[in-house]
């Protein structure tokens, strides 16, 4: 099997994990009339398509497309039941509106002018959606305010006093947002919209914390910052119920978890894996939400996902899917077990699997185990990989800076297109480190041994050839090398 086919096979195995999810829109109670009918009257949108869709965790699912008549009118109709949740009405390349559909909101009208959709939109015959639309208009204006905070932060990155002022302004603004949400929650009491808004509330951290008076002022400030962070982290999910299946058909779970794992969680693999399991425990009260959240997590913790974290991926796989706590097709479990087996051998702290390699120009076979160095990097890359072409020059410069301090790099081609690889290395002058190729019987074995489903991949080894870091970006790698070799 050639290299491209093997790479494709690995990608199929990885991406197939993403596709094992159910997108059923049907609810459980059919005793009531749950037909959906949304009449549209959109000025300036005559004889054009309108797309109706559902949110499902981090996905948007297109459910239907209707065409307006020459007066801009159309009806979105569903005879089958739709699950409670937030849905979107999309006017392609123009704008969109969101609506709530549940037992109390299935038949209503929307009137608007496409040239100012948000400003002119009106919803009739659905008090809950009228409130939801008002809130969307408020959120639209608030997003502009949040962008202005980001711009101020960028302009004042080096000015700590200004950053303190901006952070105070952001805290005040978050307080304002929570107060506005509370007003709408009160107006919409007893509705799904009210519960939706409760889940969006941000945590207000107390202004003051008692600290040891014996600490010096700087230590006290550090202690207060730490306590504020821990308070925010521990209370981050106070307003969300992970066992409520209505939120599956919204973006709430996905957005909340994405913010937590990208902005709040402590950046440590073991800590993140622990947090992921704790969150899933909160969802165990409902099989539907548990399944949806676990699949969302395992997809994002996959190496190609937004939160790439192998320990969290393995923890969720073993604690929920492979032990049948979440029943899954046997074919899915086999693929998942395959991925877990590979990942476990490549976790930080494990000894890097030794493989036979051959030097590019001499074809002399060697094992990297025999190379003595305080730090060694195994760099798997491809000459025709766009990301590799961006990453390799900067990485090579770092290597040259630290090679006299003991750094060794074995740059291994991830494909067996040797002619293209040799030409690219020569043309770009990447000749000073060890350029090598896999010398085993089947080049595809390299993909399986080192989990090279994507390139570039980078493994940092200590003097005992144990993996101490992996897949670092250039900025982090620069800091990493400085900490260990600039002594």
What brief labels describe this structure?
487 residues, alpha+beta, Immunoglobulin-like, Glutaredoxin, seven-stranded mixed sheet, four-stranded mixed sheet, 15 helices, disordered N terminus
Tell me the β content.
15-25%
Radius of gyration: 27 Å
Low-confidence stretches: 1-31
Our count of helices gives 15
> Under the CATH scheme, which architecture of the largest domain would be assigned?
3-Layer(aba) Sandwich
- Count structural domains: 3
What's the CATH class label of the largest domain? Alpha Beta
**Into which percent range does the helicity of residues fall?**
40-55%
Structural class: alpha+beta
Distance between the termini: 47 Å
Average of pLDDT: 89
User: Which of globular, elongated, flat, extended, rod-shaped describes the shape?
Assistant: globular
Instruction: Tell me the CATH topology of the largest domain.
Output: Glutaredoxin
Reported for the largest beta sheet, the result is: 7 strands, mixed
What is the H-and-E element order? HEEEEEEEHEHHHHHHHHHEEEHEHEHEEH
């Amino acid at each position: 099997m050639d290299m491209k086919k093997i790479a494709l096979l690995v990608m199929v195995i990885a991406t197939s994990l993403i596709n094992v999810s159910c997108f059923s829109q049907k609810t459980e109670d059919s005793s009531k009339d749950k037909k959906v009918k949304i009449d549209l009257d959109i000025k300036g949108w005559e004889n054009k398509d309108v797309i109706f869709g559902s949110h499902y965790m981090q996905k948007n699912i297109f459910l239907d497309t209707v065409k307006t008549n020459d007066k801009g009118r159309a009806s979105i109709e569903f005879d089958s039941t739709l699950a409670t949740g937030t849905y979107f009405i999309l006017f392609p390349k123009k704008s969109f509106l969101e609506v709530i559909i549940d037992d109390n909101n299935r038949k209503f009208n929307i009137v608007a002018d496409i040239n100012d959709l948000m400003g002119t939109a009106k919803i009739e015959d659905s008090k809950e959606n009228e409130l939801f639309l008002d809130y969307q208009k408020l959120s639209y204006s608030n997003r502009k305010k949040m962008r202005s905070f980001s711009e101020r932060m960028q302009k004042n990155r080096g000015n700590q006093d200004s950053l303190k002022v901006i952070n105070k302004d952001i805290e005040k603004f978050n307080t304002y947002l929570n107060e506005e949400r509370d007003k709408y929650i009160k107006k919409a009491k007893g509705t799904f919209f009210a519960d939706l808004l409760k889940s969006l509330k941000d945590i207000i951290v107390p202004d003051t914390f008692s600290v040891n008076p014996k600490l010096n002022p700087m230590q006290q400030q550090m202690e207060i910052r730490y306590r504020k962070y821990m308070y925010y982290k521990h209370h981050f999910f106070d307003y969300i119920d992970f066992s409520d299946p209505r939120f599956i058909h919204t973006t709430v779970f996905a957005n909340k978890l994405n913010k937590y794992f990208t902005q709040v969680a402590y950046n440590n693999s073991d800590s993140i894996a622990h947090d992921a399991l704790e969150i899933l425990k909160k969802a165990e009260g409902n099989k539907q939400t548990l399944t949806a959240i676990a699949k969302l997590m395992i997809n994002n913790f996959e190496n190609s996902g937004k939160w790439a974290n192998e320990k969290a991926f393995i923890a969720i796989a073993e604690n929920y899917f492979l032990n049948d706590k979440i029943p899954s097709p046997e074919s899915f479990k086999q693929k998942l077990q395959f991925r877990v087996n590979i990942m476990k051998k490549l976790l930080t702290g494990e000894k890097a699997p030794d493989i036979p390699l051959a030097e590019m120009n001499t074809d002399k076979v060697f094992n990297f185990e025999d190379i003595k160095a305080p730090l060694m990097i195994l760099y798997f890359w491809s000459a025709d990989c766009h990301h590799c072409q961006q990453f390799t020059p900067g990485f090579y410069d770092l290597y040259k800076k630290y090679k006299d301090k003991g750094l060794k790099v074995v740059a291994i081609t991830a494909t067996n297109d040797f002619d293209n690889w040799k030409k690219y290395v020569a043309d770009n002058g990447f000749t000073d480190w060890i350029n090598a190729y896999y010398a085993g019987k089947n080049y595809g074995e390299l993909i399986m041994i080192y989990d090279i489903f994507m390139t570039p991949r980078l493994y940092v080894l200590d003097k005992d050839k144990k993996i101490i870091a992996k897949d670092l970006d250039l900025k982090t790698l620069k800091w990493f090398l400085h900490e260990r070799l600039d002594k």
